[in-house]
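Example 3.2
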Amino acid sequence: MKNARFVVAAAFALLVMLTPVFGQSAGIRVDVPFKFVVGNTSLAVGEYKVSVMKPGMLQFQRTDGRGTASFMTNYTGGGPYQDRRERLIFHTYGNHFFLSQVWIDDVNPGHELHVSAAELEYARTAHQTQTVLVAEGQPHK
């Protein structure tokens, strides 16, 4: 009985210690040369560090320290033949940019962001194109 408790306690301790390893990604840096919208939040022109905070949640942090925002996502793609370049994919309507997907190399599936009511309105009235920004990976420490 004592042996079983010890094994369970050791397994739990190992799980707790490894959780931070699986929780956050090293992230990517990307310079966004235009204002853009993520969900219901408008973000300014600038350089951002984008990282996975936990499964299904991305964090955008301005590298100049002017702000941080977190967003819930769904997984998309993945698999052995998926394009694994680190990148942000925007839906573009004229000069309005809505972040659609984020791909981070150390995380196999991509992250798809929820479509906002504002984007749906633009989609009804304007032609959609796609803008892709290739990101710079973070050096692994």
